[in-house]
Specification:
The protein is an alpha+beta fold. 33% of the residues lie in helices and 21% in strands. The strands form four sheets. Strands 3-6-7-8-9-10 form a six-stranded mixed β-sheet, sandwiched between helices. A five-stranded mixed β-sheet has the order 12-11-13-15-14, sandwiched between helices. A two-stranded antiparallel sheet has the order 1-2. α1 (2-24) runs antiparallel to α3 (52-64), α1 runs antiparallel to α5 and α4 (96-106) packs across α5. It starts with a helix and ends with a helix.
């Protein structure tokens, strides 16, 4: 598992490099945008984008994990239609030149853009420092599956706003909300056991104007609970803080305002980023009442929260449960689709969710919402 974690950290950093290159090269960025249609349309957004970067990053991970190829899942299909109406299947080839040649067919013969992207794909990232040597977990790749979201909060990534806030505050929107998410789950139970989060646009480099990223990781299996983040210190005043989507139902906002007070409700973009805010202690709980997130959004950060003693539960099941203790039956799982749905909705978290670090805070939130939804 230590080897797998190191490899995931490296691949996530490579994915972050691709995300940065795609934003830095205006010519390349314009070519990479296509709208989702049909069954794969994410209903939450009026205009939701699919990028070639999403597809390429997912294929890059398949390339690095050949023995797990059939169990690496993501949001995007690897079929891409170019400007000529031709359908091209994108894969990572054995050499940079071969990948560039394939990408040029997607990019309508733009060899400059294809070469820039191929170089980012094949370039080895900087060494990731992570204390993983003593990590011993008795699991083999044949027991595991992977969920990838190569660019979570795609709309924020494409819009590309740069928010500036004081340290210790969450970012309501902008590039900081765009994340690379790689989550590992047990094939037989769907339990999330490892997560890697890379924030490609964590802070600006003063000289040159480029971006540097930051990575987070966690492992939770049996008696092993290890995370790159520490549990945040207890806040003053004892009042809960909750992060929501700005489009959350009014009844939820009102119920949580009564629980926390209006100054303790915060809003941010991106499901993965909102769960990261809970991991970092920028918020205590993330609540979402709608089924607008997917397995690829929640798997990676869910594993980190489990390593910290928290979790991510199905909100609907949680409101129906009579148990006041931590109930494994209401935790999100990642191995089974909703067979009655089509396209991306087969993998939606249909019951909504609550992400939390502390079980007592989960109980407070569900208590406030019970009977309201």
């Amino acid at each position: 598992m230590a080897d797998l974690l190191r490899l995931l950290l490296r691949v996530a950093e490579k994915a972050a490099n691709v995300a940065r290159v795609c934003r830095q090269e205006a010519q390349l960025f314009q070519l990479l945008v296509q709208e989702k249609t049909g069954d794969d349309k994410n209903k939450k957004f009026v205009q939701d984008f699919k990028t070639l970067a999403d597809v390429v990053i997912q294929e890059m991970i398949r390339h690095d994990f050949p023995e797990m190829a059939d169990f690496i899942h993501g949001e995007e299909s690897n079929k891409f239609e170019n400007g000529l109406g031709e359908s091209v299947t994108v894969t990572v080839c054995g050499t940079e030149q071969e990948t560039a040649t394939l990408l040029a067919t997607v990019l309508d013969g733009d060899h400059v853009a294809a070469s820039l992207l191929a170089r980012a794909i094949h370039q080895d990232p900087a060494t990731i420092v992570a204390n993983t040597d003593s990590l011993k977990v008795p699991l083999s790749p044949s027991e595991l599956g992977i969920w990838i979201d190569p660019i979570d909060a795609t709309s924020q990534y494409i819009e590309g706003r740069e928010e500036v806030l004081e340290e210790g505050h969450l970012f309501p929107s902008g590039l900081h909300c765009a994340l690379v998410l790689i989550g590992v789950f047990l094939r037989n139970t769907g339990e999330p056991v490892m997560g890697v989060i890379n924030q490609p646009f964590n802070h600006k480099i003063p000289e040159g104007g480029g971006w540097r990223g930051r990575h987070f990781w966690g492992v939770s299996y049996g008696n092993v609970n290890v995370c790159s983040e520490s549990l945040p210190a207890a806040g003053s005043g004892g009042r809960l803080s909750v992060v929501l989507s700005s489009s959350e139902k009014q009844v939820v906002k009102e119920a949580l305002t009564s629980l926390c007070g209006p100054d303790r409700l915060m809003y941010a973009s991106g499901a993965g980023y909102k769960i990261l805010c809970v991991i970092q202690g920028l918020a205590d709980v993330y609540v979402l009442s709608e089924g607008s997130t997917f397995k690829w959004d929640s798997c990676a950060p869910h594993a980190l929260l489990r390593a910290l003693g928290g979790g991510v539960v199905d909100l609907r099941k949680s409101l129906q449960s009579s148990s006041k203790a931590q109930d494994q039956q209401i935790e999100l799982t990642y191995h089974q689709p909703y067979t009655e749905c089509k396209g991306a909705n087969r993998w939606a978290n249909h019951g909504g969710l609550v992400a939390y670090r502390d079980c007592s805070q989960l109980c407070s939130v569900t208590g406030a919402l019970r009977g309201k939804l």
